[in-house]
Amino acid sequence: MAWFRSLIRVSAVQPRNAVSSPFSVTSTLLSLRSLSGEASNQPQDPQPVPIQYSGLAPTRPGEKPRVVILGSGWAGCRLMKGLDTELYDVVCVSPRNHMVFTPLLASTCVGTLEFRSVAEPIARIQPAISREPGSYFFLANCTGIEADKHLVHCETVTDGPDTLDPWKFKIAYDKLVIALGAQPLTFGIHGVNEHAIFLREVHHAQEIRRKLLLNLMLSEVPGISEEEKSRLLHCVVVGGGPTGVEFSGELSDFIKNDVHQRYAHVKDHIHVTLIEANEILSSFDDRLRQYATKQLTKSGVRLVRGIVKDVKAQKLILNDGTEVPYGLLVWSTGVGPSSLVNSLEFPKSPGGRIGIDEWLRVPSMEDVFAIGDCSGFVESTGKPALPALAQVAERQGKYLAHLLNKIGKANGGHASTWNAAELGEPFVYRHLGSMATIGRYKALVDLRQSKEAKGLSMAGFVSWFIWRSAYLTRVISWRNRFYVAINWLTTLVFGRDISRI
Amino acid sequence: MAWFRSLIRVSAVQPRNAVSSPFSVTSTLLSLRSLSGEASNQPQDPQPVPIQYSGLAPTRPGEKPRVVILGSGWAGCRLMKGLDTELYDVVCVSPRNHMVFTPLLASTCVGTLEFRSVAEPIARIQPAISREPGSYFFLANCTGIEADKHLVHCETVTDGPDTLDPWKFKIAYDKLVIALGAQPLTFGIHGVNEHAIFLREVHHAQEIRRKLLLNLMLSEVPGISEEEKSRLLHCVVVGGGPTGVEFSGELSDFIKNDVHQRYAHVKDHIHVTLIEANEILSSFDDRLRQYATKQLTKSGVRLVRGIVKDVKAQKLILNDGTEVPYGLLVWSTGVGPSSLVNSLEFPKSPGGRIGIDEWLRVPSMEDVFAIGDCSGFVESTGKPALPALAQVAERQGKYLAHLLNKIGKANGGHASTWNAAELGEPFVYRHLGSMATIGRYKALVDLRQSKEAKGLSMAGFVSWFIWRSAYLTRVISWRNRFYVAINWLTTLVFGRDISRI
Asked: Which of these, A36, A185, A353, A450, is most buried using a 10 Å CB contact count?
């Protein structure tokens, strides 16, 4: 065993002798200490000081400036993709290492698309984070921002004690971009977080899929009462925005094409109910809305006007006291500011988002920008709040990449070196129209610039084709475009996949 | 809201008025009561009796006989595929609704293949279970067998109280096939079940993948010590059989091709160690074994001879006291009888498997068969135990389908109606050779009939090509063949996927 022990010894010793990296604990720690005022009283003390915090120290004048991006959604990823890594080091902090192609997420719940096809690794969006010595991706949550010190606080995401206790660290930034997104609104209704499933992340779609297939299989078990069978197979969607409507449409497609074939024993018990307090698809043209209502009803989705009062484990209760038993409950009633955004002592826009000016800067905070669903124009700009849409986030990310690259080229990349006179054109949002699929090769496309404006709106197969093509060309990498096309093709030929894995 | 309440009312009432199905609780319950002697003292009591048990009653003479299959592995699925559903109703009981294509499972851990590509839904293998009125798949575990009453006891698999409490039911069979597989051997070593991951199911592969990617990302976080980084990135595989070797090979491929490109910051810290008490690939030809050892060592896998004594959360301890810190521990030291098999009071083969005769019948148990890893020839047959291999299970499933179809055609399908004189040829196993991939487009193919026999054995690219082709044509459905080919192609073109979803 001597050779093995020596191997183990080598592996334990070698890294200590390795070339010091930018991670080198001691040097970084010292820099941070001097920076954050947490220095030991005896810096010359030869004994090791217990390490509480570590991190990335501020960049020095000769080094590339560092852009820190919080979040990996549409806004953050589009920004990373556009940043010139010759000018900047890029550091991304997010609890997930991929971007989710949210408009296609509903399709993954029923097996039309694979989960992998709608997730794009950040390392593919911006390869520098895995190659450049000063660029990183950190699987962590931001826990606080010290804007006066140009510093963000982070804590690692872990999977329990077997791996590692959560680890805190700080990152000094030259430019900070907050792209933290939003979180689902529950309106304080009791039981939503416990019993309903949202539809924002891949793990949500996985949970919906597992539960749907489990309920289908459980309802086949002998001895189960008819009432319980109907409950298990009652899929309730709360919220009639595009997400809720698209999910209802996918679900009714799945029932019509796959449940009828693969679960013939229980096919007459499965039902979909869509509950909405107002009108479904309220941002769409009247005609489109009527069309969607007709199509959804035709494909078996029950549309119900109601306000949810309480959610319990197996039923929800409406405002008028009606009890609705469910087996699967999906919640998609829109989004609002996350708890971190709420806790930040930053200027806010109406609605509680982080306030930004026309150049997407957070006013009075030097070198801080905010984009995507977490941000909104401050009142002084006189601009309306932009909707929490992927296309807004994507356009803001693109604009900011351009702006930061311009600043970098003008040698304004480093912290507190930026001359605001060089700003250039402000960000202007032009709405390109809304799209939503309603199942069965049908979709709505609304190309009006706003709810009041005149313009083209259409519905049906042609829109569905436009919808699919538009999304296919927007999925970021060729690899995922290829996979999405292959998924659609196999679903068409072989039907949806029903393995519960 | 009146229309909604009426909708709810309709949905609650309608099923009760629906045509009575074979699941009808009352009739089934009564049949089972008379069968199992659990009848109430007052069967004429008009008050409802609390339902404890329900299930599928015995088939009647005019009905199709019912084959109950416990398990959905290679043996059970091959049998289901081959059964003539004109002759039999098929009922499968298993905690998973898909078959896992185990030889390709190692490839899914590192993203070479998608999880979906190696899982085949049972409803695709035998469509009758979702179409025929008397055929079913039940997502449940078998909890006991009453062979004298031709009855199996089952309990549903659930995902916690939100869905349904576990539900018990009984199924009467005409023919019972036990294909429960085996469970990983831990040799009573403390901590294996808690800290190590096996590699037998898709959820194991998902866990390995999530942990591997998490450790790669955590080790990039600033402030982590070099020692901790080395631990996190130390992947230890215990067991040098084909599974352990294939996983080590895949892992070293992943490190060479993808970690070096996508995790450049930590690429020098990641290492793979394969621990085996004896020789790796002990069933293979000497020359092949030497070749495998050379290739694995060349690709950076450390081969260690040792016996694991104890497993703790972040390190394992060998017999000689050596401590081996690990970030990921995969356990593949072979399989043994499951606890249900141990608990059955059936004749056993040497090694504790369910004893079978040459026709795969369980001796002295009428209408009961056992196939796959859970079964072994009883001593009186004078035949050696067959290895726990997919090809054995697959061949047994095929043979038994043929035998049962023959019995069914001779009107021996119903319980206790079978004339043993009609048995025909006994099952004979002919070993077709062993294959194992060792990464980097290299594989071993050993076409000898046994360890002692002479025959063709080869290693290298040609074998790898044979290995891939052989598996590709064996993946059961065209859909999965297509997906596996597409996965291999995209891995070649775009590299492996690294989203942690």
From this structure: A353
ipTM confidence: 0.83
Q: What is the band of B37 on the pLDDT scale with cuts at 50, 70, 90?
A: very low
Check CB contact under 8 Å for B479 and A494.
Answer: yes
Contacts of A115 in chain B (CB under 8 A): 501
Mark the ranges of chain A whose per-residue pLDDT is less than 50: 1-52
Cβ burial of B155 (10 Å; 0-12, 13-18, 19+) is middle
Confidence of residue B14 (pLDDT cuts 50, 70, 90): very low
Tell me which chain B residue has its CA closest to the CA of residue A126: B262
Give the whole-angstrom CA distance, residue B2 versus residue B10: 12
| C-alpha R_g of chain A | 25
Token digits for A430?
């032009």
Q: State the pLDDT confidence band at B466, using cuts at 50, 70 and 90.
A: confident
Domain layout of chain A by residue ranges:
26-34+51-182+337-422, 184-336+431-494
Fold of the domain spanning B52-182+337-422: FAD/NAD(P)-binding domain (3.50.50)
Backbone dihedral angles phi then psi of residue B119, each to the nearest 5 degrees: -115, 130
**pLDDT at site B276:** 95
Contacts of B26 (CB under 8 A, 6+ apart): none
Class at the top of the CATH hierarchy for domain B185-334+432-494: alpha beta
pTM, full prediction: 0.85
The terminus-to-terminus CA distance of chain B in angstroms comes to 41
Q: How far is CA B133 from the centre of its chain?
A: 27
Q: Does domain A184-336+431-494 sit in CATH 3.50.50.100?
A: yes
pLDDT in tens, B126-142: 999 988 999 999 999 99
**A119 contacts B114? CB cut-off 8 A:** no
In this prediction, residues B112-131 reach a mean pLDDT of 88
CATH of A26-34+51-182+337-422, one of 3.40.50.1100, 3.40.190.10, 1.10.10.10, 3.50.50.100: 3.50.50.100
Same fold, B52-182+337-422 and B185-334+432-494: yes
Residues of chain A positioned with their CB less than 8 A from the CB of B18: 226, 268
Structure confidence by residue, pLDDT tens digits, B206-241: 999 999 999 999 999 988 889 999 999 999 999 999
| Cβ neighbours of B225 in A, within 8 Å | 25
* Amino acid in position A43: P
Q: Who has greater pLDDT, B487 or A357?
A: A357
